[in-house]
Write the structure tokens for this entry.
Amino acid sequence: MAVGLGLLAHLVSGGVSPGVPVLIALTALLSMCASLLARINLPAWLLLVLCGVAQQVLHLAFERLSGTFPIVAPAQHQHTATGLPPGQLTATPLAASGHSPDLMLDTHVAAALLTALIVARTDMSLARVWALLHR
């Protein structure tokens, strides 16, 4: 769920999706980490912090593993793509290319909050079902 919401947040804010094998690997890794923490009764604030950390890790993984990097090529190589002499080149900010850092942060924060809310509600629902089964 966290990977799906993180990917949705990343795509909505102008990011690029990594390949399916990368998404499967990230989902498996995050699922293993969550299963290790599932046996520990975590306070709500720590659950929210962990969801935020997971979204930060997912954002960095999506950026690094998507095959696109926000690094401007050296000026001697840019003139071949633009047709301009090297002295007339200007850097294009990320916001102009459809990628907004503020929107990226906001959407990943929303994904972290939504993940924490769903996990907390699911945990409460499972506890109720478990209590009903024991009666």
Remarks:
- The helical segments are 2-12, 20-37, 44-65, 75-82, 101-134.
- Residues 93 and 103 are 15 Å apart (CA to CA).
- The two ends are 31 Å apart (CA to CA).
- Residues 2-68+100-134 form one domain.
